[in-house]
């Protein structure tokens, strides 16, 4: 696992967007797994800027979703499908034809979950999966004690996540769906490159447990320790509880430039 400490969220966004652009230059039809929440917004902004300035061609890129609420009416602005279309697909100049996501309004949820896992595999697998992290260490919507081998399936949100996400629903916790579909941890681990961005002091405990704690289902993001190509990008605030922060700074500062992320 590589840990990169950046000065702030904007620098993290720029660094990761450049890694995505480099991937698209090598593989124009790369399948990019995207995440929702506030954290990845600087990535999408930076990548859109690169596309608009002609620094990278994203016209063949394919985008896939990490997770989704269950039971929101189709087209609800806070569904993750609508969010990803608004924040990523449209700004990159893509259409829904380049986009894949699980169907949170399906009548047969287990079938929809299986279909999504199958669709990801049939698409050749995810090339680069962006991840945020919940304050409780979740990735996607894999809450603490999710199986580290889990596949895409339905999950129930913890009280903490309901509280954290109420801000997207007018601050009203009653409006936050209790159930979600999420790529499982086993599914996420099949992506060829995992890139987790965490910013702000509120994520410092979760980051420390993810990077320096034991691999344990109580901290779902700690599964990244078992991935062959996982990059954790953190700003100074989110890095503030890392014991090895100076080592991480040193290794990144001395990294050969050809290596990329
Ligand atoms: N399902 C999403 C996660 O994918 C995201 O990482 C997390 C953190 O969101 P934020 O980046 O807004 O803190 O929120 C939600 O729970």
Automatic annotation (TrEMBL):
Q: In what pathway does it function? A: Amino-sugar metabolism; N-acetylneuraminate degradation; D-fructose 6-phosphate from N-acetylneuraminate: step 5/5
Q: Which family does it belong to?
A: Belongs to the glucosamine/galactosamine-6-phosphate isomerase family. NagB subfamily.
- Keyword Hydrolase listed: yes
Show the catalytic activity: alpha-D-glucosamine 6-phosphate + H2O = beta-D-fructose 6-phosphate + NH4(+)
Active site per UniProt: 67, 136, 138, 143
Q: Which NCBIfam families match?
A: nagB (TIGR00502), PRK00443.1-4 (NF001684)
Task: Report if keyword Nucleotide-binding is assigned.
Answer: no
Name the Gene Ontology biological process terms: carbohydrate metabolic process; glucosamine catabolic process; N-acetylglucosamine catabolic process; N-acetylneuraminate catabolic process
GO annotations of cellular component type? cytoplasm
Q: Provide this UniProt record's keywords sorted from A to Z.
A: Allosteric enzyme, Carbohydrate metabolism, Hydrolase
| Name of the protein described by the UniProt record | Glucosamine-6-phosphate deaminase
Glucosamine/galactosamine-6-phosphate isomerase domain location: 10-230
Q: Which PANTHER family match?
A: GLUCOSAMINE-6-PHOSPHATE ISOMERASE
Q: Where is this site: Part of the allosteric site?
A: 146, 153, 155-156
How is this protein's activity controlled? Allosterically activated by N-acetylglucosamine 6-phosphate (GlcNAc6P).
- Its EC top class is hydrolase
Q: Which species does the entry assign this protein to?
A: Streptomyces coryli
- Coiled-coil features, chain-numbered ranges: none
So what does this one do? Catalyzes the reversible isomerization-deamination of glucosamine 6-phosphate (GlcN6P) to form fructose 6-phosphate (Fru6P) and ammonium ion.
An example Gene Ontology molecular-function term: identical protein binding
Q: Which InterPro entries match?
A: Glc/Gal-6P_isomerase, Glucosamine6P_isomerase, Glucosamine6P_isomerase_CS, NagB/RpiA_transferase-like
């Amino acid at each position: 696992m590589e840990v990169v400490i950046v000065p702030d969220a904007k620098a993290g966004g720029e660094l990761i967007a450049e890694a995505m652009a480099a991937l698209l230059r090598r593989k124009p039809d790369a399948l990019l797994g995207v995440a929702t929440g506030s954290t990845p917004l600087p990535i999408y902004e930076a990548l859109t800027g690169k596309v608009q300035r002609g620094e990278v061609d994203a016209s063949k890129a394919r985008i896939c979703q990490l997770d989704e609420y269950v039971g929101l009416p189709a087209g609800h602005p806070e569904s993750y499908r609508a969010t990803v279309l608004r924040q990523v697909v449209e700004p990159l100049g893509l259409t829904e034809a380049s986009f894949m996501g699980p169907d949170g309004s399906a009548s047969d949820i287990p079938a929809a979950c299986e279909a999504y896992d199958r669709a990801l595999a049939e698409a050749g697998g995810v090339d680069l999966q962006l991840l945020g992290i919940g304050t409780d260490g979740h990735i996607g919507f894999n809450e603490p004690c999710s199986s580290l081998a889990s596949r895409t399936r339905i999950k129930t949100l913890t009280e903490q996540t309901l509280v954290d996400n109420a801000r997207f629903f007018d601050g009203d916790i009653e409006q936050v769906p209790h159930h979600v579909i999420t790529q499982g941890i086993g599914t996420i681990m099949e992506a060829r490159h995992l890139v987790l961005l965490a910013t702000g002091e509120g994520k410092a405990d979760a980051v420390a447990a993810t990077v320096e704690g034991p691999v344990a289902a109580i901290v779902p993001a700690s599964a990244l320790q078992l991935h062959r190509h996982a990059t954790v990008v953190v700003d100074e605030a989110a890095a503030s509880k890392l014991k090895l922060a100076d080592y991480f700074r040193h290794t990144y500062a001395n990294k050969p430039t050809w290596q990329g992320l």
